[in-house]
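pasting for the record
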Amino acid sequence: MVDTTRNTKLFTTYGVTTAKATTPQIAAKLISKAKRPLIVVGTKILDPELLDRVVKISKAKNIPIAATGSSMPGFLDKDVDAKYINLHQLGFYVTDPNWPGLDGNGTYDTLIVLGHIKYYINQVLSGTKNFSDVKAIAIDRNYIQNATMSFGNLSKADHYAALDELISEL
């Protein structure tokens, strides 16, 4: 079992509250309980190991994927519901309760973030944290302080193991 709750060192701060460190088991429970979850992936998801795991998470709970940056080509032949959107646009849209979502069925209550550049996703989540009720669960290998909950800073091997634990709990 990977301890994902350690090593949450902050390098910059964006507010008075920071993400609670979480375990793969708790993250899986929160994902399972979400009414309208959305997986939000960045360009780093094109690592074959990460791509395989995010596809498994999506298929396990039938969760749509918002592919940001240049990540969309990774999902073209994966048989998942993936749509391209700019990350900053998405951050703006999810704060609007009247946004129809990527599928026309309404906005999302939980964002599951993975594969982003740390400072970039922290900027976007600063807006969602301060201007909406949307929860963000960061299952990346870096601690994302503006998420609601986040894994700590992990090695690649520990990150893959933590994601495997999360998948087995879904």
